[in-house]
Every structure is written in C-alpha cells, then in structure tokens.
Amino acid sequence: MKYYLIVGEASGDxxxxxxxxxxxxxxxxxxxxxxxxxxxxxxxxxxxxxxxELAYMGFVPVLLHLPTIFxxxxxxxxxxxxxxxxxxxxxxxxxxxxxxxKYVKHKTQIPVYYYISPKIWAWKEWxxxxxxxxxxxxxxxxxxxxxxxxxxxxxxxHYVGNPTVDEVNRFRATWHMERDSFYQHNTLSEEKxxxxxxxxxxxxxxxxxxxxxxxxxxxxxxxxTIVVAGMSTIGSDxxxxxxxxxxVKLIFDQTYGLLCEAEAALVTSGTATLETAIFNVPQVVxxxxxxxxxxxxxxxxxxxxxxxxxxxxxxxxxxxxELLADRFSVENIRTELQKILPDGSARQQMLDDxxxxxxxxxxxxxxxxxxxxxxxxxxxxx
Length: 382
Known about the structure:
The chain is an alpha/beta fold. The chain contains 17 helices and 13 strands. The protein has helices spanning 10-26, 38-43, 59-64, 66-83, 94-107, 128-134, 145-152, 163-185, 203-217, 236-243, 255-261, 271-278, 292-301, 310-315, 330-340, 347-361, 366-381; strands at 2-6, 31-36, 46-50, 87-91, 112-115, 137-140, 158-159, 194-198, 225-230, 248-252, 262-267, 283-287, 322-324. The strands form two sheets. The chain has a seven-stranded parallel beta sheet, sandwiched between helices. The protein has a six-stranded parallel beta sheet with strand order 10-9-8-11-12-13, with helices on both faces.
C-alpha cells in the first residue's frame, strides 16, 4: 500500500521514520512519499519537501513566510491528489496538517490518520471540531489524552504507547558497551558524579535558561562534574559566551549517555523532562518566560492544563518541581536542586513517583502498535 506522511519538525521526522520502519514490517509492499527529513529519507521513499522548508516558529517568522507556507500547502494538496495514496498520515504540526486533513477529507476518499496528537488539550481546544470532522483515526502517545478525547469530547482514539519509552529502553540495553568510551571521548572523570543541564534545543531556550542554570550550580563544581547537553545543530560558538568563567563541560548530541550517568538534572520543559524521568534521574524543570506575571495569569485563566512538564501531566500531580514564570529564579533552582541530590529530602519521593509515570506509559512499542492498527484498518476497507 501507499502511505503519504507529513511532518513539520525534527521530532516528527524521528517518530515518522520509526513508524515507517514498522509499516514496512506489517506491509512489505509499503511505498512512501512524504514531507519530512533525513531520517525518513534514510528509511526510503520519495521526499517532496524537507521539513526545514516548513518549520517557522513564532508569530513574526510565520507572518514573514506566509507565501512560502501557502505555496508548500498547495504543493502538498496537489501531490496527494496526483499520487493517490492509500492513507495520509499526519504527525503533530497542526497548523499545516489540519488544513491538509480538511482538504483530503473533502476532496477524496483517502483515510486520514493522525500519529501523535496535536496538544489541543493545552491550547486551542476548539481544534477538536476539525479533528472530529476530518481525521479518521487518532493515534496518541500520551495516556492522559484518552480521557480528554473520549470522555470530554466523545471521540475514540488509540493510545499506542509512548515511543520515548522504547527508545530509552533500547539505549539502556546497550549502554554498558558504550560507557567507557563516553567518559574517555568527553574527557570526563569518573571520580566525581555528573550533574546534567538540559537547557533546550532552540537558541532562545538556551539564552533564557542556561545562564541561571549555570549560576545555580556554580557552587557544586567542586563536588560534581557539571555537563551541558549541547545540540550540534546550534554549534559551540553559540554556547561558549554563556560558559565563560564556569567550570563546566559541553558535550554534543549525547543526552541519553549523559542521563545514564547523571545524579540529577536541570531540564527545560519538553520531551526532555519525560526522557529524564524514564532514565530515573531526579530533575528540576526550569523554564524562563518573558512577562512573568502575564504568563502566570494565562496558566490560571487561559491555558487548560496545570503543568508544563509531561511528567506531571502524565502523573496528574506535581512529581517534579516546575520553575517557570514568577517561580523561575536562581535561588529557587538552587533550593530545589539541593532537595533532589543524594541525601536530599525530596529525592526518594521523586524516584518513587516516577514509578507511577512508568506504569501509566506502559511498555508497548508505539510505532509497531500504530502500524499494526493502520494496516488492519486499511485491509478491512479494501
């Protein structure tokens, strides 16, 4: 069968490439055409556009690139009509993908599958109307989305497991073979335990969060090796001005290895908070925001969730401290970090609470589950 996939960012490229591999196992005749990235290209098929030609973050960049965005949207719609896939598979990226879903639903009989739900439970809940009208099957990777969709909005979905669980488990299974080279390659001493600083994957996140993280951990450098998890896509030149006069190490693209060894971590919210919990590393979530009091007001009155970290959202209570808006300060980071270091007052409770998060996530392999259901659905309809 023929599958047309659309992603709009790096994480979508990763998840979609794994789904494509699983679809090939379920359907050896699978053909792929996609808007995606290098990982999807490596699996096989035809790439129509790279996601970097689609991904514009923030109001002003989107406004400036509207002609390009609309041109790519028109191209995508025409290409789907011309290729006539057996299914269109959308991966997150709702601004673009929900428009495609509406077009496909109204112009064709092609089923629309959504793998990894857009986060409408946090913001823009009104998008549920478009999803119910235009998406045939929703495949969720977050367990708390099931009651949101099924109980609140009466729209059945599939919780297929969380891909991060499988990715972390596979990494940990082979880590014993990589550990020595990790320390040697990065010139890390095993005499001092590691503290991990995961300050985000975008320049703005790094600029906002890393300085406070460094200041909060400065007095621990004599007892710990403090390591900043860098992104090679950002480049060392961007990090270096922040690191001057700080006794820290910068390592690139080795976050999983770092989390295998870290005693504790400071983490900017995102998938990294969930990865850190799955590795059983106690953490403090740090997320600097502009106009702090307005952000706090928004959380109380406009945003429909109580937490920003996936860990707390999955547990439905505060397992890890979230220092954002008016709670973000060097002193608060330092205080909360002390609580989760060895012998800290909150460390064991956090580790115990992680067990609840692990239990709710389950152990199912998300792309395998999703691929099996997709192929079954298509086989039944053919």
